[in-house]
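Researcher: Please translate sequence to structure tokens.
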Amino acid sequence: MDIEKVNKIFDNFKNINVLVVGDAMIDCYIEGKVNRISPEAPVPIVNAQTRNYRLGGAANVALNLKALGANPILCSVIGSDNKAKVFYELLEDAEMDSVGIVPMFGRRTTVKYRIIGNGQQVVRVDDEQVAVLKEREQRQFLTTIEQLIEHHAIDAIIFEDYDKGLFSPGLIEEIIHFAKEKNIFIAVDPKRRNFSNYANVNLFKPNLKELSHGVRIEDTVELSLEEIHRIAKDFANEKQIDKVMITMSAKGIAFYDRGLDSFYHHPAFQRHVSDVSGAGDTVIAVATLFLLNGNSIQDTCLAANIAGGLVCEHLGVVPVNTSRLKNEFSQHSEE
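Model: Translation complete:
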């Protein structure tokens, strides 16, 4: 596909408004040098030199959508704490609105601290609160979502579920019901706790490990594409899901379309992988925009595969480089 056609696809994204509903967080990278082992325990001592804060989780999905040219609105719950100030500053730096952010007293803003020594991650520390929102808090959050949908022309909702306590089965059902009434495209990036609670959605994007856990399969190592096809088809029919997209790391992407009753597999590209963090965020953003734009399953999987691979080349969570995505998509779509 020539670059002019590719540019036209991406130019269409500027007209797409996406509400990203999910667990937003801060990713903190503390980098330094390791010169010795601690005398207190057999662990390296990292002499911290830099501390870098980035938007993570659902906020990283919104960042990817913005990088791709779309118009994201992030809707999430954070704490009323010191780290909330950092979160708002990061949003402002990214030129994203905080209209959908709901601060709640007594709740902590999720921060993932990654300690990096000599260019390699030594340990990760999660400072978070994963208790499910109380009923009153859920009503407050749902009201915020409904108001955003009423006052903005929302084309799609992306559920970005990181199992941090934002979603309950009832809240998920209410959001989906409200979105369906408005004819809004619904995409889901699930995690374990609520895996089976997403029904009647347009796009469901687990990774292979999440899918196998969700359908109670112990070992995914020996699963053939035929078996993955069967699992995806059965799950899509059971939950009345239009499309199931399964990311499989080095094995690429599998895609089942229930309406067409078709299965497609796109192999992964060889990359120098530095860090897989945030790749799923990028894939759900790209896939949602491509499907909303009317692109084929093949082009959607190709673009998502390339985009996920590109972000894995970087240490830490980063949004996709759209210029590189366009160029590689143009090259490979001609093959």
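Researcher: Any highlights?
Model: The two ends are 9 Å apart (CA to CA).
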